[in-house]
Amino acid sequence: MRSIFVGLVLFSGIAAAQDYDLVIRGGRIVDGTGRAAYAGDVALRDGKIAAVGVVAGKGRDEIAAGGRVVAPGFIDVHTHADDIADLPVAENFLRMGVTTLIAGNCGSSTTDVGFWFSNLQRVGVAVNMATLIGQGSVRAQVMGGSFMRPATDDERAKMRALVDRGMAEGAVGLSTGLIYLPGTFTPTAELVELAKVVAGHGGIYASHMRYENARITEALDEVLTVARGAGIRAQVSHIKLSSPAAWGRAAEIAAYLAKARADGIDIAQDQYAYTASSTNISALVDEKVREGGTAAFVKRMADPAVKAATVEEMKTSLRNGRRPDYAYAVIANFRPNSKLNGKTVPEAARLVRGSDTLDDQIALVLDLVAQGGAQAVFHGMDEDDLRAFMVLPLTMIASDSGVRKFAEGVPHPRGYGNNARVLGRYVRELKLLTLEEAVRKMTKLPAETFRLGERGELRAGFAGDVVIFDPQTVGDPANFAEPHAYAAGFSEVVVNGVPVIRDGQLTTARPGRPVKLGGK
Ligand SMILES: [Zn+2]
């Protein structure tokens, strides 16, 4: 009897020693489904989650969670991290718990998805990467320098072929940036045609819509036209109501989306947790005079009649938005003169032109665009609308950020703080969302919506992407004045079973993988 007993103990001891690569013990498990948190352990093996709950076996490595939250790594479906190969650690994302990013948003992406993925693998990145294929980039490549027209039959065939190849190489869908060049000149029918190709692969149509202001329902109508016409699932990118003229309509827009779903359209949305947006300051200037690039713009501005019409159009646009001037616009990164970084347009106009009248503000903006443009932050949204969108069950939390180079420029703080801000401000402080619901919006909901396969949930067999954070201290010290500050509260970040942040310190590991449609 005694020898059998010893044998069993030995057997279980040997088995235990080999059980898991990593065990996280004593966590408050928030598993990504929205289910109530519970006390438990998470075990990982071979890059995947092997067990969740009470884990008896031993890990080669163990982490004591000490009651902190253990959750799936966050999935950010709306990023501009297309250049991640240049900054492969993506520390701004890692430190707010993001382990999987979708690039290629707002119509702008690589047009060679296969090469993009293989390059990531060659370089080695710390996070998992998926991409959309950008309709603007495809249009630019096929149509060359002239976009202010519908594409020809031949060009449309070439665009379809490019999109088809991108999808075959693993893109998760098609994105648009319909306020940007060259996307803005795209007829809806052209979008439907490309979306059909994407639908054939099971991908999604993610749209930075034509309008996010008082004309938002026209823009949503166009999204539905594409969704219906192509039989494709749709995503409203960074849902918002921009300009005072549009504020207060979140309930109406929520009802619009609910009706679309009731009518059989599969549509959802993502959002960043700030009332300011960020894009190039050239967005303030009519696309028709910017078409063809900076030199073409400068040439057109030399014509007094064109310039006067452009100035008039800018004034009309301000009036339509019920704005007195450009005080809501802050220059974030203007390479030719970094003294302007962090200044509002009126402040910059005073500095450069000695006056901040509206005409001087407009002259300054046109001057910046003539010098290649500048990254800018626009304080254009209302907090009540933001909260109304955030509580919608199909709203995902997404940053709209690229990989940040620490201390460069004065960018939007969302690139450092977005997820942490939701968990700190909107969950802990304002109690707008439960912790479980917020985590679901960052994990399982995006994984399912974008069909990323077995990610976004703490469940055996799923990818070993896990974060540990302290719900009492999680937060976003980055703000508009000083945006370069990493999120607080994340002590451990594990990607495909490998810790990339351990005890709050970066490791040297870069275990990120390409994530293709369906999780392949
Ligand atoms: Zn966008």
Number of strands: 21
According to CATH, the homologous superfamily of the largest domain is: Metal-dependent hydrolases
Overall pLDDT score: 95
Count up the domains. Answer: 2
Shape: globular
Q: Share of helix among residues?
A: 25-40%
Q: Main attributes?
A:
alpha/beta; TIM Barrel; nine-stranded mixed sheet; 17 helices; 36% helix; binds zinc ion
Task: Explain how this protein is built.
With 520 residues, the protein is α/β, with parallel strands linked by helices. It folds into two domains: 72-276 and 382-454, Alpha-Beta Barrel (TIM Barrel), CATH 3.20.20; 280-378, no CATH class. Helices cover 36% and strands 19% of the residues. Strands 1, 2, 3, 4, 5, 18, 19, 20 and 21 form a nine-stranded mixed β-sheet that branches. α5 (153-168) packs parallel to α6 (188-200), α6 (188-200) crosses α7 (216-230) and α15 runs antiparallel to α16. The longest helix has 17 residues, at 304-320. The protein starts with a helix and ends in a 14-residue tail after the last strand. It binds zinc ion. The site of zinc ion has 5 residues, from loops.
